[in-house]
Amino acid sequence: MTSRLLGLVELMFHLYVTLDDIFPISNDFAVVEVIKCLLHYISIGADIRVRLNFQDGDLEVRLPFGSHSRLFLSEVNKAWSAQSLQVKTSILWPCSQGKVKREGWDELKREGRHDLVHQSSHTASNKATMLAMPQFGLRDNLIRFAELYCAGFQELDLSKVAFFFNDTPKETEWMKAVSEGLHPDAKYALVKLVRLVGIMLLFYVRNEHAKHISEMEAETVGTGIMGRMGNKGAVAIRFRFHNSDICVVNSHLAAHIEEYERRNQDYKDICSRLLFHQHDPALAPLTIMKHNVVLWLGDLNYRLSDLDVDNVKDLIAKKDFEVLHSYDQVGCFRGLCGGKNRLPATYKYDTGSDQWDTSEKCRVPAWCDRILWRGKNVRQLHYQSHMDLKTSDHKPVSSLLEMGIKLVNEESYKKTFEEIVRLLDKMENECIPSVMLSRREVHFKDVKFMQHQAETLTLHNDGQVPCQFEFIQKLDEPTYCKPWLTANPAKGFIAQGGKVDIDLEVFVNRSTATELNAGHQQIEDMLVLHLERGKDYFLSVSSNYLPSCFGSSIQTLCQLRDPIQEIPLETIRELTSSGDETRTLMIDKPLDIPKEIWQMVDHLYRNAPKQGELFQQPGLHREFVEIRDCLDTGMPESLPGSNHSVAEALLLFLDTLPEPVIPFSLYQQCLECCSNTSQCKKVVSLLPQCHKNVFNYIAAFLRELLKHSTHNSLDVNILATIFAALLLRSPTKQDLAEKRKTQEFFQHFLVQDLS
Ligand SMILES: *[C@@H]1O[C@H](CO)[C@@H](O)[C@H](O)[C@H]1NC(C)=O
Ligand SMILES: *[C@@H]1O[C@H](CO)[C@@H](O)[C@H](O)[C@H]1NC(C)=O
Ligand SMILES: *[C@@H]1O[C@H](CO)[C@@H](O)[C@H](O)[C@H]1NC(C)=O
């Protein structure tokens, strides 16, 4: 609904459609702000929920904070005034509190912040409320006066509900605690709250600045297993403040001292996958690093390498930070800096104390928790850790930063812009644009499943005028290139005599792998590069694709006794060309289950039955590549990689099956009978033979793992949640109720011995 409305708002201002055309502004029309019942204070600038009433209609919408909503509400207001209606409630945006009238409002205001802070009957277990307790001296200690506040949390909630369903009551608790703890000398608006499982970011701005904030967006990226689970990852916001683009990231990277490589991979993943869409859909999404200022905070989990516990504690006691930092794994986090860090280590303490970890593991102290930044004109004024807060085994850190903000002089901007347009018009009329391409053919060698490859093409503007280029789609094609290819940038501007590098990237994911594996499609494409007011250039792209078991069907793989890359493409094509029903088996005796599944499951069964965090801790991409190659070529003989990488490969394999283990056609039936064990068993008996074998084999393996639950901490709930999502994929979008039913279905096969 939100985006539709925004679309309408844009439409309104571009096409001069009036508001009346969209909403009937009549005598019985009203807009009422919906009170968020848990919030006793208003947060100006936060997402706002309004209810629109007209005639019999009643529509509740949530408007994201930002210029579009502002525009929309001010138009609504204007339309009202024009009709001089008797308005039940008025909303102004950004609203000043006095103008919002609603029942109980004055009372709420009187209660105010101070009363909440002075409450003294908190229970110690409620960590969120503790933040606001006077004895922590937060006002004096933590909260320095600032114009904008960002507060980041990690591991907000470690419960399974939070992990699997991304839902937690802690969100509101902590948000209240922070809102009430901001500096008392000014009023702040909560502009954005974004959360992924336990990683949360809050962004506040002083009321008087709210109107200068625009293009507010929030995104999240999970880097947990299969890039989906949100126990690790990042949340981020971007916004424009006056004319500066600012991005704030809060991340929680992989833990454990030896997982250094995994942390770097998480960081890279976050940078490449976290994309903010722009209001103009024709513009490429913005990455984190495209912003003028980037603030990066969180539990980055980087440790000190090669120093033992006693050494570290000794150096900390001597305050020898120079030596300590020379062992720091974080280095200069790819162009982000953190200033001089002379704080006590932030990790790891016995919860509730200032004692170093006294547990058996006796973790080495480290600076896991950081506040880093990137951008011109950023200066750290203050940096501090908060030893008084004892609710966690980490100590929180805070930093006060000063940022230079760009302000465009509208008048001279307009003048310069008009001058340039005039100049361009004149030149355009005189000359035809032209470019030189550094190559007309691009060949990628040995493209593989889930392995990124890039080649660069350079455009050189050798014409007499600046030019505008764009890859355009060919007749009858929906996009300018095949789905496995992207050109970055796909359009742009080149000054006269200038150059632009275009990255052509190939990435075969699960949507495209099946057709390529089966030989029904090749990596071949022809791109058309169009110059505005100029001619078209053609660019051919080709590659040899190396087929993979990932993305191939169970049926096909059961008929391949040898690794897929040793089979002639012609054979695979024949095997996969007939429809499902009519397919005749090509070999006399197909395998019971694909040997690749056997190889991965057997590996885990033999090596990792007692591994903790199995199927929850992600593996390394580098090792996935080796495992894939081993399955596809048969070399080496046994699977490489850690337990976690093999486990993730197995999940990915199930996830990329074009037809899931429970075929789409039986999915609905599974939901219907999910509470009845004998009916569930009956559905499984209806599966095609090789699907049935795979299902039973995996269920048996998981029951085996559950026998070691004292060591691996797995339980029926965790396994049902993870595997039901892969074995029973929905042909359409799944809602939460459906998801729970698939889990209930699969649980029948985990709890009992079906032999
Ligand atoms: C695969 O890649 C295409 C093109 O980048 C994308 O549109 C699609 O969503 C991806 N599919 C999956 C399952 O990630
Ligand atoms: C795999 O897990 C087992 C426990 O079942 C452990 O002993 C072994 O070291 C792990 N292997 C690797 C390579 O981590
Ligand atoms: C489950 O289904 C079977 C067969 O349809 C039926 O006989 C049985 O009563 C059902 N059990 C329960 C607990 O509903």
Automatic annotation (TrEMBL):
Q: Which domain of life is it from?
A: Eukaryota
Report the InterPro entries cross-referenced here. Answer: Endo/exonu/phosph_ase_sf, Ig-like_fold, INPP5B_PH_dom, IP5, IPPc, OCRL-1_2_ASH, Rho_GTPase_activation_prot, RhoGAP_dom
- Keywords (A to Z) from UniProt: Cytoplasmic vesicle, Endosome, Hydrolase, Lipid metabolism, Membrane, Signal
Organism listed in the record = Hucho hucho
Residues of the signal peptide = 1-20
The reply to whether Heme figures as a keyword in the UniProt entry is no
Tell me its family.
Belongs to the inositol 1,4,5-trisphosphate 5-phosphatase type II family.
Q: Which residues form the Rho-GAP domain?
A: 567-755
Query: Which SMART domains does the record associate with it?
Result: IPPc, RhoGAP
Q: What is the lineage of its organism?
A: Eukaryota, Metazoa, Chordata, Craniata, Vertebrata
Predominant subcellular localization, coarse grouping: membrane
From the UniProt record, give one GO term of the biological process aspect: signal transduction
The enzyme's E.C. designation: 3.1.3.36
Record Pfam families: Exo_endo_phos2, INPP5B_PH, OCRL-like_ASH, RhoGAP
Q: What is this protein called?
A: phosphoinositide 5-phosphatase
Instruction: Give the Gene Ontology MF terms in alphabetical order.
Output: inositol-1,4,5-trisphosphate 5-phosphatase activity; phosphatidylinositol-4,5-bisphosphate 5-phosphatase activity
Task: Please tell me whether the keyword Lipid metabolism is annotated for this protein.
Answer: yes
Which compartments is it annotated to reside in?
Cytoplasmic vesicle, Phagosome membrane; Early endosome membrane
Q: What class of enzyme is it?
A: hydrolase
